């Protein structure tokens, strides 16, 4: 396998069907679950991300400990978002301990950065998700419209989950809002009057406050 330049910021070479993982994950439960199911290669000094599915697709993994420790993880997300050559998928451990921090990371990742966020309960669940993503990467996007559709579905799912977290919205009102305001930009720019036509005045005021309050 072609070696990557340690500490570089350019594209990482990933053979088809492989995952290139940051050395720090060696010996972890996540790595152990992946080994034997996908071809896993560890590299030291990987730029930006935790796992590379291809030269253009990567995974940033935010652990329970990362969330509890503060906002340090945000710098990594911003670097991937600003890289220009990477499509980053953010996987976040949502546990009983980290749940209180989850809405903040979801808001930052999806609303502020426009990235896909997928919550998992633990590293075992994360490994199943990553294996599924790798299997899709092995199909050529130009010949397999399902892959493009899947990426779209991931983005839509992440968007729906985020809108559900807005105070007063929940699972019932989120789809209704997205039918009228299909993007976060449109939803955040909507007036209270426009919102209340869909969810009523009280919830409309909560949504408006959510987007206009200082972050």
From TrEMBL:
GO terms for cellular component: Fanconi anaemia nuclear complex. Transmembrane segments: none annotated. GO terms for molecular function: chromatin binding; DNA binding. It comes from Myodes glareolus. This is Fanconi anemia core complex-associated protein 24. It comes from the Eukaryota. GO terms for biological process: interstrand cross-link repair. Belongs to the multisubunit FA complex composed of FANCA, FANCB, FANCC, FANCE, FANCF, FANCG, FANCL/PHF9, FANCM and FAAP24. Interacts with FANCM.
């Amino acid at each position: 396998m072609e070696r990557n330049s340690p500490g570089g910021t350019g594209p990482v070479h990933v053979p088809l069907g492989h995952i290139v993982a940051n050395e720090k994950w060696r010996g972890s439960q996540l790595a152990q679950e992946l080994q034997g199911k996908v071809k896993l290669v560890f590299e030291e000094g990987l730029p930006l991300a935790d796992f590379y599915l291809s030269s253009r697709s990567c995974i940033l993994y935010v652990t329970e400990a990362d969330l509890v420790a503060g906002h340090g993880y945000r710098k990594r997300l911003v670097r991937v978002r600003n890289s220009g050559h990477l499509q980053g998928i953010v996987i976040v451990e949502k546990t009983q301990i980290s749940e209180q921090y989850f809405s903040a990371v979801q808001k930052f990742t999806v609303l502020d950065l426009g990235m896909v966020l997928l919550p998992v309960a633990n590293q075992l669940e994360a490994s199943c998700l990553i294996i599924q993503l790798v299997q899709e990467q092995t199909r050529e996007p130009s010949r397999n419209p399902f892959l493009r559709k899947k990426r779209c579905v991931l983005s839509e799912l992440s968007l729906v989950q985020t809108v559900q977290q807005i105070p007063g919205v929940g699972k019932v009102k989120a789809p209704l809002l997205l039918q009228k305001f299909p993007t976060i930009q449109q939803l955040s720019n909507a007036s209270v009057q426009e919102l209340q036509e869909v969810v009523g005045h009280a919830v409309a005021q909560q949504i408006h406050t959510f987007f206009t309050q200082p972050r």
